[in-house]
Amino acid sequence: MSNLSRTDVEHLARLARLAVTDEELDVFAGQLDVVLGAVARVGEAAVADVPPTSHVVPLTNVFRPDVVTPSLPRDQVLAGAPAAEDDRFRVPRILQEEA
Amino acid sequence: MTTDRLVEFDEVTTRYEPVIGLETHVELGTASKMFCGCSTTFGAEPNTQTCPVCLGLPGSLPVANEAAVAATIQIGLALGSEIAPWCRFARKNYFYPDIPKGFQTSQYDEPLCVGGHLDVEVDGETYRVEIERVHLEEDTGKNLHVGGATGRIHGADHSLVDYNRAGIPLVEIVTRPVPGAGARAPEVARAYVTELREIVQALGVSDVRMEQGSLRCDVNISLNPAGAAEWGTRTETKNVNSLRSVERAVRYEMRRQAARLDDGGRIVQETRHFHEDTGSTSAGRSKEEATDYRYFPEPDLVPIAADADWIAGLKAGLPELPAARRSRLQQEWGISGNEMTWLANAGALGLVEETVAAGASPTDARKWWLGDLARRANEAGSELAELAVTPAQVAELAGLIAEGTINDKLARQVLDRVLAGEGDPAKVVEAQGLAVLGESDELVAAVEAAIAGAPDVVAKVQSGKVQALGALVGAVMKTTRGKADAATVRRMLEERVHTS
Amino acid sequence: MSTPGAMSTDLTTLDVAALQSALSTGEVSAVEVTRAHLDRIAADDARLGAYLHVDPDAALAAAAEVDRARAAGGELGPLAGIPVALKDVVVTEGVPTTSGSKILEGWRPPYDATVAGRLKAAGTVLLGKTNMDEFAMGSSTENSAYRPTRNPWDLDRIPGGSSGGSSAAVAGHLAPWAIGTDTGGSIRQPAAVTGLVGHKPTYGSVSRYGLIAFSSSLDQAGPMARTVLDAALLHEAIGGHDPRDSTSIDAPLPGLVAAARQGARGDLSGLKVGVVTELGGDGHQEGYGAGVLERVAAAVALLTELGAEVRPVSCPSFDLALAAYYLIAPSEASSNLARFDGVRFGLRVGDDGSADLDEVMALTREQGFGPEVKRRIILGTYALSSGYYEAYYGQAQKVRTLITRDFTAAYGGADGGGVDVLVSPTSPTVAWPIGARVDDPIAMYAADLCTLPASLAGVPAISVPCGLSEGLPVGLQVMAPALADDRCYRVAAALEAAQDAARGHRLLDELPTPAAA
Ligand SMILES: [Mg+2]
Ligand SMILES: [Zn+2]
User: Fold this and answer.
1) CATH assignment of B441-497?
2) Model-level pTM?
3) Candidates C101, C162, C205, C469; catalytic one
4) Can you tell me the ipTM of this complex?
């Protein structure tokens, strides 16, 4: 199992859109390394032919019928917005192109 | 924008072999969204078709729309895909303002439909496009870029987001790489999208209107030196949003990549944008680092396990698919493959079929739609189907000719009036007195008046100059304003001139 | 013990079953009951810190509405007029909901969680929203972005977490009962360390619609109460199928109140109880308080006296539960918390016209999230990232399968031969001093050691008080197979009744004198 360096944490923070401070980076890198060391124990399990569990409920095919239900009134939709303009959510300039 | 150096298209395939691939997104025409009950109606006021689920508000949870799953399975069945006996949704994690949850609910390594193919014909040759997968996901919201000159993301001051489209079910159809199309690659790409669009339309699961974005294409292209064992690096051109653009984008990328390779350069694996106005592509802003979507199975949705009965039911409900229909009609109408392609390309197939169903002969129906009506549509700059005439009216018109009530020339006048909204052909004939004149009193009078009015011509005819009769026919036609049948007039004149 | 005859005394000391009968006979009004609790909140909450939001006017108005309806002779449900507190992770229409985070400060949701809606429809009166570890990440409620909550048994100690506001409110008599949520033990552990009954239902049996998600495949809401019967009553009020949650099981709940009443009769003969070796048994006692193990052993002995057949059961994969949990939960959380991007709701930081969207998102999340949340987001992002998924997230999901298999083996499958329930300590230790573990994530995570297996397997588990160690409450955990929540209530009620009878009063009666005096 690998260790988490300060650079790794920096990269992960960027991926997760967290503007961590330098101070935090140092603290996190240390703490996460310890945590990672502990959780890396999952690697000890003999699970070669064990299927993963993503859902504990044995359900399949849970659907809703294709029926229109009322949407929220727009004033309620925009009420919580940090910024709105022209009935839309306003965001700062986007630099990155669509993924 | 930089101007790319381009190689002449004809030259490209003398040195390189193209490989194309297409990812097509089809917005389904369900009444409600993929995971909530909000309406999907196009063109609503911004943010009026949203709720806690499609806004990604904290605590909200998705529930999958059964009709969207069924429609996806039908698309897969139409393409000959295997329907997965068990599959899941996955989260595709990335940040962008138009995805409300910080992830798109999509499918990853477990798509609903796997494999299949679509055969397309270009210049009489059939190309098989293999399908990789068909999966179901949700659409994003729409960003409106404000400030800056172009309304595009570059140079914008800020952006505004409308989530009405967020969460509309989206089917993604991905092809395997298609080698071997050579110089026809642009047309093969276009033919594939055209055929796919017709299939989806025939299934009735989407209105596939490219101009409204309910069908969108990403086009992958790479070139490899002719005869090389390995494929080249591909580019992905996004948002190619008309059939014509699909062809143009492939053509442009082939020419651009060839020039680059000729110069000893390398192709960068990148996303490019297509520009409708110039028909060119340009590189997207490259990202600092490769996106890592961190896919994992969506824990808020349970697996889909389509059982055999459900699939069989959906299969039984499939309509006749476009290719099968074309070959059936070709046989029924006794026409050549080229004629069929012509009809299909003109968008006349359904119109001709309906006209035949309304009683016209296949020959008459084709003649009208591909002849006069095609010309008029062309003049008006519209589609055949948009003309103000129904297949039933065309069939009626053909019937009036066949029974001798009108002739071709009159029929065109009648058609003008039908298109002008004056009613069905028979009604126009009646109202305007446009029927062909039989041996009526009116015609006898006109014939006799012509004879009486031109004794010199009559004398010529009687002296053996039979061709002089034409002048008399012309005179009668003129007085009857074309309503008379020329052959009838000639016979009547001959009888009278010789007996006199 | 209080009785309806003692109405002149503090209404906040009554359990819900007693309040119900007093309300239905008209001895007290809903307004009186509500006001008594609001008074208690006003008096004690400054030092307990159990609530994040209380709206006395709204609570009294809701209570008055119930009284009016009762006076008009309307049909009222059995819970009408009973006050309730909701953990702030439960979305409430028009009522501030923060999940303990600054990133949601001031947010008033436009909708109700199913749990909140059902309690509202039942006529309960919302007293307020209780404090919690930010986004339910923690075992001490010290990770609340607003303030820590204190344990009514010892104000210098933690009330458990993440539902520590709910545990402190109910143990401190600032609410007769409360809703908590449990992802890795967040109902059971705070209940254990404050002397309450707390039940984590079978995954899928209580709707998650409107619970601000921490780890979607683990989260469940459940009751926290002062008696087993009250917990069963609250569970029945919130449980059952919800079409808005795709993981909701479409089956009726077993009779929980009936099971609690049956258990209280004290006969467990024929019941097979397994004591999990890996959770505090021989060779697995490192990190467990001696007093805790002693109290748990005494409780197990009591179960034998009540007729149960007790034997040790080994669940070897439970040793890996902590590692699997601290990969799965942060992974899902890293994705669930991506929606807090400052675009549609909540906090936005740095939007000064010069910063671009990515910068604003990153600044917003930097300032809006506390350190534990950030740590887990980074860990989860790592565990899901390409190249590491299989070794971490994938492997953890396989361990999850092993843990489920251990449960299945213990319960003996369909053919019997196994045990009916498994028991263990709920928490390895009693409540620790505030601040003792804040800089040591691993020590903090160890608090969940015993509760994690049931979370990962999605099976029900209850914590019921089993005495004091060092003057602080200890809880016994009773785990049952999926959908057999009734067994948890039956065993817990039997134990509760036997202990109350033995000591002559309830454990909570030993709570140090409330400050209100
Ligand atoms: Mg896609
Ligand atoms: Zn919606």
Assistant:
1) 1.10.10
2) 0.91
3) C162
4) 0.96
